[in-house]
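>> received
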Amino acid sequence: MANGNAPKMTAEDKAWMAKEDARTLAEAETIKGDKSRMGAAKQAAASMADEAKKRADAMTVVANGSMGMMNGKSGPSPAPVKKKGSKVGPKNGTKGKAPVKGK
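>> returned
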């Protein structure tokens, strides 16, 4: 990837990179032609993707600020504490008691 802050590559660097890319592409063709290696690579890729998703999901939790942490232990967030004198019901924000079903 090009980066505006990266130093300019010399002709020697570019030649080395081209040779390295050629070796990488040749190795990829070898792997594609070997059924066993290709199967193992696909399984490894699936496992790596699962791990990356777990890390991404964890990062999303951190970014959203809903870590569910209490005393350094993970788990569900505790229920909100009802303040003394609050007239808001426990379920739907109604005053007093929560409505009874069927009425």
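>> Residues 35-64 form the longest helix (30 residues).
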